[in-house]
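Researcher: For the annotation table, I need structure tokens for CRP-like cAMP-activated global transcriptional regulator. Please keep the output clean. Sequence:
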Amino acid sequence: MDDVLRRAPLFAALDDEQAAELRASMTAVPMGRGESLFHEGDPGDRLYVVAEGKLKLHRTSPDGRENMLAVLGPGEMFGELSLFDPGPRTATATALTETKLLALSNSDLQPWLNARPEVATALLRAIARRLRRTNDVMSDLVFSDVPGRVAKALLDLSKKFGVQSDEGIHVVHDLTQEEIAQLVGASRETVNKALADFAARGWLRLEARAVVLLDVERLSRRSR
């Protein structure tokens, strides 16, 4: 778990002794599959690091449609906006699998930010990367078609959760096809059609809540 934590931006600027001290201030939060940690609009007073499992961040529109913002895995951090803007949560966090989080309250983190500006800088870099990714997603929605967005989403998931095998890259993403549709901002029917087309071309093989990427090069070209 220590190796996982060291990947989190919160720990990037700390040496081993400092990281161990900060880790001691964190509280373990176990979550069952389908359990929500917080909901959009809830007050936010702590950040979280994923230690084990997978979690999705998603929003619900006034008419009930869902939009998935991100799928997070071990070493990834969320909730840090509450440190700099103590407003309500901007999304709902729901576990996709059995998940273990490590939580750090704002009151426990604030002394670290005051004493070690490099920690605050690392957190701001993480927020900047997330903003950049949001800009990329917005551009994709405007300029890329649904098959292109599906290909890009699968490649992104493979970078987080993929395991190389003799056949290709095995990606256990734990998403339903409806959730993949929410991730790329399209209807389930359109996403299913794109996945079936990729499978027919021999670019991938579909499995239950998983996929094997057989031709990463062609998927990469299709994602552009």
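Researcher: And a one-line annotation?
Model: The chain has two domains: 3-141, 145-223.
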